[in-house]
Amino acid sequence: MKKGYMIGLFFVCSMIAVLVVTLMWKRHTMDGFHRENENKEQAADSIQEESQVQHVEAERIERSVITNVNDADASQVQNVPVVTTKDTVCIYQDIDQKDGTVSIVEEKLSAKYIGLNREELEEALEEDSRVRVLEEENGFKSQHLELFSPERIKVLRIYDTSTLNKGYYIMEVDGEIRIYKDDKETLYYRTDLILQNLPESVQQEIIEGKYMDSEVKVYHFLESYSS
């Protein structure tokens, strides 16, 4: 009986030893597995961080390149002169001070205004203004540049047609023939013609006040009866 007891005790101890070894092996295996997972996660995090850093650096470089390109383009644009061309559209806005009438005319740009920058165009318009005022052209008063670009310019022109002469009257004063403006009071020209030297039909017209609607007609009349 004692021998059987010893066998049973040996068997139980063997089982316990096997169980302990098995548990220790599993624990060791699990610890290794966890450490491996942790190493993989750390490696993945490291790769992700490195990727983010590279992405940020790439964006920074890209922004720098774009900025440099834009600066270069802006510099080139600033160096390009802005002038009118044969394709520039010219818009004239005319205002009549007599009654406030406004009219807009779109024309092809005059050849003398092509190839000018804003300052040069303003000077050219001012010079033209002085000439037109001296010539009393259609009641013209002034003009100035309102809009300027290579594609389109806009010029404001001021007129006062109330000052325009509406015609002329050929009249007799003390037997002499004189030319008056349309108000019949403002002397325009004193001729050397004598009323009695003209045909009777013409004399009667002049006595009543012979009207001419243009300076050219007045000139032709005087030329017809001058000796």
Describe the protein.
With 227 residues, the chain is of the alpha+beta class. The chain folds into three domains: 1-80; 89-163, no CATH class; 168-225, no CATH class. It is 51% helix and 25% strand. It has four helices and eight strands; from the N terminus they run H-E-E-H-E-E-E-E-E-H-E-H. It has helices at residues 2-79, 118-134, 200-208, 215-225, and strands spanning 89-96, 101-108, 140-148, 152-159, 168-173, 176-181, 187-194, 210-212. A hairpin with a 5-residue loop joins strand 6 (176-181) and strand 7 (187-194). The mean pLDDT is 78.
What key attributes describe this structure?
3 domains, alpha+beta, rod-shaped, single chain, 51% helix, 227 residues, four-stranded mixed sheet
SSE arrangement, N to C: HEEHEEEEEHEH
End-to-end CA span: 181 Å
Count of DSSP-assigned helices: 4
Give the oligomer, counting copies of the same chain as homo and different chains as hetero. single chain
Number of strands: 8
Secondary-structure-based class equals: alpha+beta
- How large is the radius of gyration? 53 Å
| Shape estimate | rod-shaped
Strand content: 15-25%
What's the average pLDDT? 78
How would you summarize what this structure contains?
The chain contains four helices and eight strands, in the order H-E-E-H-E-E-E-E-E-H-E-H. It is an alpha+beta fold and 227 residues long.
Give the helix/strand layout.
Blueprint: H1 2-79, E1 89-96, E2 101-108, H2 118-134, E3 140-148, E4 152-159, E5 168-173, E6 176-181, E7 187-194, H3 200-208, E8 210-212, H4 215-225
Parallel strand pairs: 1-4
Antiparallel strand pairs: 1-2, 3-4, 5-6, 5-8, 6-7
